[in-house]
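#structure-requests
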Amino acid sequence: MPELSHRRRMLVLAICCMSLLIVSLDNTALNVALPSMQRELHATTSGLQWAIDAYTLVLASLLMLAGSTADRIGRKRVFMAGLVIFTAGSLLCSLAPNLELLVVFRMVQAVGGSMLNPVAMSIITNTFTDPRERARAIGVWGAVVGISMAAGPLAGGLLVESVGWRSIFWVNLPVGLAALLLTLCFVPESRAPRPRRPDPVGQVLVIALFGSLTYAIIEAPDASLPEVLPFAAVAVAALLALLIYEPRRAEPLIDLRFFHSAPFSGATGIAVSAFAALGGFLFLSTLYLQNVRGLDALHAGLWMLPMAVPTLLCAPLSGRLVGSRGPRLPLLIAGAAMTVSGLLFALFEAETSNVTLFLGYVLFGVGFGFVNAPITNTAVSGMPRAQAGVAAAVASTSRQLGQTLGVAVIGAVLAAGIGSSPYRDTFVSAARPGWWILAACGGAVLVLGLLTSGRWAHRTAERTAERLETVEVRQPVGTSG
């Protein structure tokens, strides 16, 4: 990629952030619409889980493929294809006549979305080569998540109350088209000097692992053991096959050598934990505010602001802290705040009082605002720039997998606790195990942040990067496993 002027780099960053905005806005707005969708489409709790997880599951399954494909055939080309497919999928979702087709069209959306975030992050990492400047750019990138969290529930609630839940998908159309035109005009094309070949076997194994695991978790409360057990067995078999098959390839879909770096492994675990907490938190909060408190979608969206605004304010601060002092402090703040938030709900039933509900939301927003920038920066900073797309895709996959598992696990716990009882009668007691799980996710962020941000961890990252660069120099272009 040629060296760009400061103004052009800022424009590229803005275009990439637009792609993150429509993906994140879609998810946060759709959470507010879940009760309306439940009534209109006659959906069960597991049906609502699939409306969310169909998207994040496909996204998680294809992100690494999209990242390596973009490194190989061109990041701008793949990014533009993703914008087209995502926008078309959004239009189809707005026309879905039933839950089954909505789930299918959400998968179409996800195919496009898989080409956006990791590729955009790869474009950013190759545009901003100075570490401090890159950390600030990633901080801005993380702030967009806060913007989407602030605007998503409000916009979603307003649209649901005035037009209907289908209009949520219309928001993606003008933003997607604008991003497409701006990308065509201003984003330069770039490729990795030594891109990886496709790994179809690895890709199939990843899809089998993520899909079967999610299905087993979501359907467990309503299905019998003989119905769920085969999917759990497929998940275990796919995981073992990945661990055996991928190291034997010279150009694997998942380069397990990346995980020899303690910061990279820690960033992956932190991403899964933090986004599992986010997915579960949004799912529980939305159902509680509307199905238990009886709020309409707009007022439920307003109640999400105490979580969204701190995320918006803390994300750029986290980016600056990562650039100046490293990732440890932001991760410790994030883990502590998310843990305390979960404990407020688990121990003190924070949702039953306006004051504690507000405080729990603020603490979670602070924690999530601080966690995103160190995840991304840690994941890509210790890797060779030539493989930035793959490294960023693994980090993004961890986020989406975490959110998928968060909705699946928390939804399954809630469904098992509620059974056939009305939400109003049993929600607080049924949700308590879920809040304990979210507190544990915050604790995992705290512990992993401590373990993987020290000097010894950085030394493992340096040794891993050296080994990766040495292997790439020795390996001829086009070598396959």
